[in-house]
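Hi V.,

Quick status before I head out on leave. The structure for the redesign project is tokenized and pasted below; the design run finished overnight.
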């Protein structure tokens, strides 16, 4: 799990350093670029936390217990939707 967290932190720093270039690979629309920058600003600091529940969930699925990881991951995704920026804006402008 530590390797996953370190990897996520390194990827996060990579995205922070190259965010303009990475976003422009996918779009040139200024409104979409602004929205993507805002999403990165809120998502990147917590990216390493995803590795914690994904690693545990994958380990449980590997042991044949697929229901509990599904419930836990569903809970985290719904919590993000309720309290995160997804609740305010569900689609890109335009």
């Amino acid at each position: 799990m530590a390797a996953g967290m370190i990897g996520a932190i390194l990827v996060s720093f990579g995205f922070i350093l190259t965010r303009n270039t990475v976003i422009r690979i996918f779009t040139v629309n200024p409104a979409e670029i602004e929205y993507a920058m805002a999403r990165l600003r809120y998502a990147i600091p917590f990216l390493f936390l995803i590795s914690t529940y994904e690693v545990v969930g994958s380990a449980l699925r590997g042991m044949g217990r697929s229901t509990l990881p599904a419930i836990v991951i569903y809970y985290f995704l719904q919590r993000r939707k309720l309290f995160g920026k997804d609740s305010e804006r569900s689609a890109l402008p335009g």
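Above is the designed sequence. Confidence is low (pLDDT under 50) at residues 86-94.

G. will cover questions while I'm gone.

Best,
W.
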